[in-house]
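Recap from last week: sequence in, structure out.
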Amino acid sequence: MKFQISIFAGLILFIFAPQSVKGFDGVLEGRFLAGSSYVFDSPTGFKDFDSEAEIRIGVLGNAWTGKEWQLDYEISADANQGDGPSIQSGLRDETKIDFFRAWLRLDRGDFKLRGGRQKMLFGAGAIYRPLGFFDTRDVTGVFPQTRGADAIRATWFPSPSSLLEGWLLPAKKGDALIVGVRGETLIGGVEAGWVAQYHPRSNVKDLIDFKQEIVQLGYHLKGEKEVGLWNESRLDIEMQSALRFDTVLGTDYTFDLGEGLHVLLEYFLTTRQKGFTLTDPKGQRTIQQIGFSMDQPVGIDIRWQIFNLFDLRDKSFQMIPQIEYSITESWFLYLTGRAGGNLKTGKKDGRLNRRADTFTGTESTIGLTVVGFF
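Predicted structure tokens:
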């Protein structure tokens, strides 16, 4: 929190202090979101409607421009208010006010140095992201965006088609730091990338496995020639313990039907040795899932999509349909739904559909959401 406050205070002083530098400018941007979903068969004692409202306001622009360098910035914060069974069960906070982005960036074109709360999102996967160390998106949600990570990141572009990048994040546990490096390039038309990260025990609860000390190694490959193909994998080495391996194989294609029917398929596998910390509530060390999505525009105002997730191990599934209607160029209405089940008769504890005495977030729902940008 002190890290966030110091960044925010520095940015405010810099932006609103009297300026005589060349090129200072700023643009105000924001987002409004409000939605509610009816929960079918909500557990006893829990509300039937799950609702939220959010407003995000920020400013971004150029603070200074020199002969070779320029200094850019972004500050944005959001306030979220929720109500319903997800609040009652503790899946999310009733009220949350926090920074979404808050960074300064020195930019020379082929070299960038950015410090503060920033987006850290890389990899080739669409639904499953083994390399999504800092990815907090719900890809099946109405408008998924990953929240920022507090980091110092340096990026160098040795050529227009390659980069080398490193980062430091405070682990919020003593003086420990999360340290990582990655690279990307094009090899014969195929996007190839690698990553290595040391992840000490931390108090950054948004991170995967924040309680564990892990060395993480990974790669991704992605190519497209009519049909898109990709593979993204990660090996986790838990210190003084054992190994875990995650991988995704994916493909997509746009069929010439209507205004283009986009179909995407991913296979996900995670497996770990006996000594690796077990986090699956069912005690299973190997999990396999399939993610399938379709989306298609209808005219210029409507787009429909549907996510289908299926667990090959316990035979549970989720279907998440969504229809987007463009009210204007900046305001959108979403009709959303969620339907889950288990192919095994009488099964109630599926990984993707769990029926319990408390709200789990896998219940079937239908709802409306309005999103506006300004």
